[in-house]
């Protein structure tokens, strides 16, 4: 097998790797949301409790848990990813940037990475392993 065939064959995996990126990133985000809302899998709020729903961490927890769940299954991926991208930018600039410039120092690196992953998904879509793809295929069949 020559090098060109290997490259062409590997590039055909891109849509499936997009779906894998979406699934793994959403699974990680859901954990941030459930930790804020339900102290599961661990309590991350100051004092060890849960966030009040009417607070900024509570709203963030709702967006992360339920928006992350929608992205995990690939439903309404583009608009939800765009919303979550904005939320992650807000989280970074409100919660992390005031503690210093470097994301690794201010612990903002997850927010930055999530922001750009969600921004990418808002443009690229959910990929073939998603409810969005299944619904699109079903609507074409009708």
UniProtKB/TrEMBL annotation:
Residue ranges the record marks as coiled coil: none
Protein name: DoxX family protein
Organism domain of life: Bacteria
Compartments, as annotated in UniProt: Cell membrane
InterPro entries: DoxX (IPR032808), DoxX-like_oxidoreductase (IPR051907)
Record-annotated membrane-spanning stretches: 12-32, 52-73, 80-99, 111-131
Record membrane topology: Multi-pass membrane protein
Keywords: Cell membrane, Membrane, Transmembrane, Transmembrane helix
A Pfam family the protein falls into: DoxX
Keyword Cell membrane: yes
Family: Belongs to the DoxX family.
């Amino acid at each position: 097998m020559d090098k060109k065939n290997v490259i062409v064959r590997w590039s055909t995996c891109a849509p499936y790797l997009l779906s894998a990126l979406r699934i793994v990133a959403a699974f990680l985000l859901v954990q941030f949301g459930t930790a804020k809302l339900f102290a599961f899998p661990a309590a991350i709020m100051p004092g060890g409790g849960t966030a009040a729903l009417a607070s900024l961490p509570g709203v963030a927890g709702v967006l992360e848990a339920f928006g992350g769940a929608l992205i995990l299954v690939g439903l309404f991926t583009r608009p939800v990813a765009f919303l979550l991208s904005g939320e992650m930018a807000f989280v970074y600039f409100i919660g992390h940037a005031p503690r210093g410039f470097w994301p690794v120092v201010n612990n903002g690196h997850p927010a930055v990475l999530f922001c750009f992953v969600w921004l990418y998904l808002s443009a690229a879509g959910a990929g073939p392993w998603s409810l969005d793809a299944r619904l699109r295929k079903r609507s074409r069949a009708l």
